[in-house]
Amino acid sequence: MNYADTVAKDLLEIHAVMLSPDHPYTWASGLHSPIYTDNRLTISYPAVRRSIYHGMVELIKNHFPSAKVIAGTATAGIPHAAWVAEEMGLPLVYVRSKPKDHGRGKQIEGVIKPGAEVVVIDDLISTGGSVLNAVAAVNKAGAKVVGVVAVFTYQLPAAAQNFAAQGLKYYAVTNYPTLVNVAKEQGLISADHLASLNDWRQDPATWSKQHADKA
User: Fold this and answer.
1) Beta bridge partner(s), residue 36
2) What secondary structure, in 3-state letters, does 164-208 show?
3) What tens digit of pLDDT does each residue of 174-208 get?
């Protein structure tokens, strides 16, 4: 079993990712969704977090071998970035969602040198908006983000478009199609659920409207 399958199975087992097509979750944005993700839970499970950061290290070595600094997004990306940086023997920084409103007004904590090639780590990629803000902050500081790595991605079309617009690639240890397939193999979802879950990934906004009465 590869990292994608192993971590997908782990996320389902510890309820870091939950699927509920019949009774959708309501996201903070107001959208209704058949999936809810809380990857912060993974930090409490040593074997799970180990699989995640080993998977991240493999992705970085395969796709971004020039990386010289690991940057974690505050707050959910920080622990994973720390484990990756330690495993790879690389410097660590973390990026706030916005600059501090006091002191020196820093947005990036840690030492990052001009021209340094950086991989940014986040826990989840939906549309990519929040992590791309972190990317912009790192680039503004004079470093160069070479790529993004995450624990999990929904692989939404919006994310592909947003990253393409920035000329940047991203990879995740596991992803929505893999997780749905694992859930199917484990008998956690039916054929009807599978169809509904696939429809959601293709068009979350339309799916949300069609299932609002079930939320």
Assistant:
1) 18
2) HHCCCCEEEEEEHHHHHHHHHHCCCCCHHHHHHHHHHHHCHHHHH
3) 999 999 999 999 999 999 999 999 999 999 999 99
Please give the span between the terminal C-alpha atoms of the chain, in angstroms, as a whole number.
35
pTM of this structure? 0.95
> pLDDT tens for residues 127-167?
999 999 999 999 999 999 999 999 999 999 999 999 999 99
- What pLDDT is stored for residue 23 in this prediction? 94
DSSP annotation of 29 reads T
- The predicted pLDDT at position 103 comes to 58
- Tell the residue number behind the tokens 């929904």, with chain if given: 154
Note whether 53 and 83 are within 8 A (CB): yes
Cβ-Cβ contacts under 8 Å for 161 (sequence gap 6 or more): none
Rounded distance between C-alpha atoms, residue 152 and residue 123, angstroms: 6
Rounded to an integer, what distance in angstroms lies between the CA atom of residue 34 and that of residue 132?
25
Torsions phi, psi of 148, nearest 5? -125, 140
Distances (CA, A) of 82 to 33, 59, 71, 79: 31, 16, 9, 5
